[in-house]
């Protein structure tokens, strides 16, 4: 029989304290449903009464499917629970549970609360009793517990024990300032569980030494049975324990999975990567590619020696299977790779090639030469695909660019306003016909060039109608022989497919033009345009 370990999500409360994060009400509702769907036991919605959004959330969020929890502080010193407006908001909120934050460090009681240790203990007692009287499940977040324990263990333990004896189901030990180390957490939680049963002890770790996940696991090793954390590690300052790392660890690592059970099933585990990306999308943040388990690079290898072994058996260089968390494996082609990376990439793009084909070596040499002058094929798979298809002779000569010209003019117009006008002209040869000349005005040189290029490609025009440039990134590189510019362009088409191409040149317009041309030719190849 496995021990049940409970997961408590505080994305909507501590996560809302993240610098740069501002949830809307619909974000909060969507996140709450997403958390319930993956099997999180407790969802802390926010702090009713602290702001109109959180108050409204508790009016609207019903039947979430997890224990929906309201957060707030214990009664203020010198007031009764019945006469504390903050407590009243908390007790009136439509929540299944109430989580009180309580002081447990005597220094904080003196300096921040400006009261006595006895009054703090009374405040914990009264607050828990008031919530119990309203039939709520009660949790007490013991703020600064670890720092408090180091300064005055008797007082910190008295606070935790008071909460427990008054009927709190959970006494949650908080590493509020995030400075405690795993061996300290394990030792201190070990002391707490002698006084409060581990089945009622939780951990709330902040990530200020990047050990919030390790600290949470250390607490579990010492007997704690609730972990508080957030999606993608959101939270005050450096964040909270990242549930996207904790959940797979608890599910997939025998040290935990063999004796502990969480509410997340295997199917939900397989949706974790999607959940993580969805949160970033809502927050308009670029996902952390290097996030453990769910990051885009978590199961990607550039190294040739690794790729060669992975092709034989992925377990050689993977600690868990990417599919378990809904992620995927990728072997990239770059200057760090060998024939195995190239073969894997050729298979991915659907080019069937004998593994002894000498052109594999040729392609690898070209990639390495071009990476040395600034190309980055691992970031521009569409340009790699074109390069590979050209080496294997499968890209038709669709379009030949005979000339292009960009003119940027800055002037004062008839209304006495300063204006900058950019015009690009492109001359291309398509098949045997007359050369085609197109001009376009854009908001900048690359925009103008893009518009002119795509204005008239003769018989290929119909294939590129839905093509759109969606991102443009420039980096100046110093390769030792003077600065060169690397341009990465992301494009999208009417099917929603997107791809990235690269151009490199000492001249930014030239680099952009190469990336634009690769994007167009890639689209023609994708669309199966005839030669
Ligand atoms: C470790 C954590 O993350 S705890 C959660 C922190 N999150 C937040 O603070 C976000 C939401 N907070 C808020 O919107 C506001 O701070 C409110 C509405 C809660 C309170 O606002 P205000 O009444 O204006 O008080 P203010 O924020 O200035 O100060 C907090 C007060 O609570 C008191 N307090 C702090 N913790 C506790 C506690 N655990 N129990 C009782 N009182 C407490 C402080 O001593 C201070 O009292 P004072 O005004 O007499 O000095
Ligand atoms: C409660 C809380 O967020 C903390 O102590 O860090």
Describe this structure in words.
An 8-stranded parallel β-barrel has the order 2-3-4-5-6-7-8-9, surrounded by 7 helices. It has a 3-stranded antiparallel β-sheet with strand order 13-14-15, with helices on one face. Strands 16-17-18 form a 3-stranded antiparallel β-sheet. By secondary structure, it is of the alpha/beta class. Helices cover 38% and strands 22% of the residues. The protein is built from 19 helices and 18 strands. Residues 14, 17, 47, 50-51, 73-74, 76, 101-103, 112-113, 123, 143, 176, 236 line the site of acetyl coenzyme *A (ACO). This is Citramalate synthase. InterPro entries: 2-isopropylmalate_synth_dimer, AIPM/Hcit_synth_CS, Aldolase_TIM, Citramal_synthase, LeuA/HCS_post-cat, LeuA_allosteric_dom_sf, PYR_CT.
Query: Shape from CA axes?
Result: elongated
Average of per-residue pLDDT values: 95
In spatial order, strands of the major sheet run 2-3-4-5-6-7-8-9
Number of domains: 3
At the fourth CATH level, what is the homologous superfamily of the largest domain?
A: Aldolase class I
For the record, the CATH architecture of the largest domain stands as: Alpha-Beta Barrel
Q: Which CATH first-tier class of the largest domain would you pick? A: Alpha Beta
What are the segments in which pLDDT stays under 50 over at least 5 consecutive residues? none
- What gap, in angstroms, lies between the N and C termini? 66 Å
Rounded Rg: 30 Å
Q: Helical segment tally?
A: 19
Bound molecules: acetyl coenzyme *A, pyruvic acid
Helix content: 25-40%
* Annotation, overall tally of beta strands: 18
What characterizes the major β-sheet? 8 strands, parallel, barrel
Strand content: 15-25%
